[in-house]
Write a structure and sequence with these properties.
Length: about 400
């Protein structure tokens, strides 16, 4: 039954595709529609695709997988992932198995506040602009709320604002509004708030309104996830120490940190794609956050604990959504949500971050141990075999078409 779902499904990877769907259906999580969709091979109907974008000519497919063994905040979760790179799903599942031996991932996202930016140019007397803004503070928040009544009715709305002086001599300032967007990604909501409040801000501060748009660095939407692993779980004390040294390497070197972070995003992006999230915004925010100190840094670090194990912490801004965008439109995304059954956007962000931290642990363990290539290449060869088969089939089709005088 759905309440007692285990994310450990023995031998899942050895089963046929149909048997894997059987196992998912057996959890009781899937609706009849979602089960039918998966049994039919997933994907996106052309009619839906045509409504989602412009100039559509076909659908572009990716494998939809499920990462196993995840336990997040005391709950087992089946984690859908859409990714073309071999070994990402296996690696995340493997690391999640190690982490669950110590109780699983623990994480939280404190708020779902997105940031709206209103640019003002040539503001006079920038030194006193803060005082002028303080005088209209409540009025601006009320005007912002009035522009998004549906959001306010759902418990969201404008929470706060602040002034940032970008160039005093030019009179270039930005007003940032913090908007609680609940379970939405929030881009449309905060853009609406930015546009609705801009005239008031211009009247109060002077100068000329410039851009009115969200920031993809939602610092009030930080998600933080922790995981502990014992030395035995990662393969022994020397390997645990080597993982901690690998983490230090990333802390000291941006050339390494970017690859370390890419490994984290392997997990986060794969879940994002499967769940129909705006992965470009997540990527942009993650890398900006990594470099916020002025030096590009790792988003996750691993340190040795006194007990000789490892503790990993990952922190990044993450604008996740369980409503809006393609979350209700795409049948595969709907099925993925049924499997994951998160309570809202904040829980989704925690699961995504857990997938990122798991991917990071798996990568560091492989790199610090036997190297990445052995496991990677085994899975790559499987892909090459598929490519060769597809090439042969395409060749046969071309040959048949040519024989038939079509070309
Ligand atoms: C490959 O997709 C990801 C890794 O390069 C990450 C890392 O080096 O930490 C293995």
């Amino acid at each position: 039954m759905a309440d007692t779902v285990s994310s450990r499904i023995a031998g899942f990877y050895q089963r046929s595709l149909g048997e894997r769907v059987d196992a998912l259906a057996g959890t009781g999580l899937l609706s009849a529609e979602a089960e039918r969709h998966l049994r039919a091979g997933g994907g996106l109907g052309l009619e839906v695709a045509d409504r989602m974008s412009e100039n559509v000519v076909a659908c572009h497919g990716l494998p939809l997988s499920v990462a196993l063994n995840f336990r997040v905040n005391q709950r087992d979760v089946l984690v859908p992932m859409a990714v073309e790179e071999p070994s990402v799903v296996a690696a995340a599942s493997n690391a999640a198995r190690m982490v669950r031996m110590s109780g699983g991932f623990v994480g939280e996202q404190a708020t779902s506040q997105m940031t709206a930016q209103v640019q003002l140019d040539e503001v006079p007397d920038v030194a006193s602009a803060g005082l002028r803004l303080a005088a209209v503070h409540d009025q601006v928040l009320r005007a912002g709320d009035a522009a998004v009544p549906g959001l306010v009715a759902r418990g969201g709305g404008c929470r706060d604002l602040e002034l940032r002086v970008l160039d005093e001599a030019e009179g270039l300032v930005v007003v940032q509004l913090y908007v609680e967007v609940g379970d939405a990604m929030g881009a449309n909501l905060v853009d609406t708030v930015a546009e609705a409040t801009a005239p008031l801000l211009e009247a109060a501060l002077g100068g000329r309104v410039g851009l009115r748009i969200l920031s993809n660095l939602p610092l009030r939407r930080l998600v933080r996830v922790r995981a502990a692993v014992s030395a035995e779980a990662v393969g022994g004390a020397p390997l645990a120490a080597a993982i901690a040294r690998a983490s230090r390497f990333a802390e000291k070197d941006p050339f390494r940190a970017v690859t370390h972070n890419k490994g984290i995003m392997n997990g986060i992006d794969a879940v994002a794609l499967a769940l129909g999230q705006d992965w470009r915004s997540i990527e942009a925010g993650a890398h900006c956050y990594a470099s916020l100190s002025g030096v590009y840094r790792p988003l996750a670090t691993w340190t040795l604990t006194e007990a000789g194990g490892l503790e990993g912490v990952l922190e990044l801004p993450l604008a996740a959504a369980t409503v809006g965008g393609s979350t209700r439109v795409h049948p595969g995304v709907r099925a993925a949500f049924e499997l994951l059954r998160v309570s809202g956007a904040r829980e989704l962000a925690v699961v995504m971050a857990a997938a990122g931290l798991a991917s990071n642990l798996a990568a560091l363990r492989a790199l610090a141990g036997e190297g990445i290539q052995k496991g990677h290449m085994k899975l790559h060869h499987r892909k090459d075999a598929v490519a060769a088969a597809a090439g042969a089939a395409a060749g046969a089709a071309v040959a048949a078409a040519t024989r038939g005088g079509v070309r």
